[in-house]
Each structure stands twice: as C-alpha cells, then as structure tokens.
Amino acid sequence: MKTRFIVLVGAAALSAVAFARPYGGGWRPGPAPMHYRHHHGGWGRGGRNFWPGFVGGVVGGAIIGSTLSRPALVVSQPVVAQPVVVQQPVITQPVVVQQPVIQQPVVVQQPVTQVQNVWIEGRYVDQVQPNGAVVRTWQPGHYEQRTVVVQ
Q: Maximum distance among all alpha carbons in the chain?
C-alpha cells in the first residue's frame, strides 16, 4: 500500500513537470513590451514542448495502470495443524471423615440447702389502734433463721 502511494505521488510530480514551460511564458508584472510579443502558443514554436509532456503522461499512465491493476504478490506460510491433546480431568471422590460423637455424662447436682441466721434491720411499723388512730412504733433489728440454697 505504501509503495503504491509513493508511485502515485511520483507520477503526479512527473506529470506536473511535463507540462512546465522551459522558456518563460509565465506571468510578468506590468504591460508586456511591444517587441516581446511572440506569435506561438504555450507549447513553444511548432509545438516542440508538447511531445515531452505527452510522452511523460503516457509513460506515467502506463506505470500507474500496471501498478494499480496488478495485485500485490502475497506469500503466505503454510499452515501446519498441530495435534491437540485433550486430557480428561481426573475426578476423585472426596473422603468424608466423621468425627466420633462423644457423649458427655450429664451431671445433675442436687441443690444443697442450708439454714442460716440472717440479720433483719430495724424499722418503723405503722399500727392501727381500735379507735382508728395510726401509731408509728420502732421495731428493733433481729436475727431470723432462713433456708438458703447453695450451689
């Protein structure tokens, strides 16, 4: 692709040069002097500048036509198929190890009861009299025997 582009640009440059006029004929500033007027065309006297451009166009067209119409030579490497080895996966069954269940003996403790002496704080106690009057009296602290469950 890059070669075709280079050839195409080169042919365009050759064709542009082929149409150039070697003996002037370009634009000149100011009016042309009367003695400088020539009586021949842009191709020179008798068309002598026509033939180099014509031949250059024919040769350039032939080169471009042959380059663009001919497919590029493609050399490919032969494809060698390698055998494919497929290994079947080895599936092993998982080993299940069960832990033995050990029954712990159930120990039931019987509650232990004890009789203890417990101090009861002193307090004021309201007493209702037979006539409906309420009398507050002090009851002093004392020990009582109570049954206590000890773990």
A: 168
